[in-house]
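no rush on this but wanted to send it before i forget. what follows is a protein written twice so to speak, once as letters and once as structure tokens for the fold. mainly i need to know what kind of three dimensional shape the backbone takes. thanks a lot i owe you, the record is right below.
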Amino acid sequence: MRKDAGVADRTSRDEDLMRALYAEHAGPLLAFVSRLVAGDRQRAEDVVQETLLRAWRNADRLRGSPSSVRPWLVTVARRIVIDGHRSRQARPQEVDAAPLDVIPAADEIDRALRLMTISDALGDLSEAHREALIETYFKGRTVNEAAETLGVPPGTVRSRVFYALRSMKVSLEERGVTP
């Protein structure tokens, strides 16, 4: 009877993990895969479903390192798309190959992954730090312009940017990205 309880407990943990993975990663993963499959929504959903199924099969491995889940999911999804492309190439062509021309090149995939990681790291910042970074780095405003926009002294903007960059560096390092 204890063995059955252990199996039920593991099943419950796996279901909780899958719910959490789906809630946190399905949307961004679908957007990423949609770009890889040239906007084919049905195919993108199939790839996301297969990716999450593989995550479920590897639940024990994923549970041990939560910070590397999204890169793992993106890598698996990309490989599923590549495998699908290769299998279609091995068969006689049934339809026009024009949609395959819009599959992003490796540089675009790396850029998309980098942007997703940076976006996640920005989400870890406090609202004040994030606003200071967005005003100075992303909108290209000077410290004085950012201070005027945010309604705080320039010294506060400098301080917030300093601490935000420091937090971003730590966050990116934790995600395995060298800033």
User: Anything to note?
Assistant: The domain at 2-103 is CATH 1.10.1740 (Rna Polymerase Sigma Factor; Chain: A). The chain is about 80% helix and 0% strand. The mean pLDDT is 81. Helices lie at 2-36, 41-57, 59-64, 69-90, 106-124, 127-138, 143-150, 154-174.
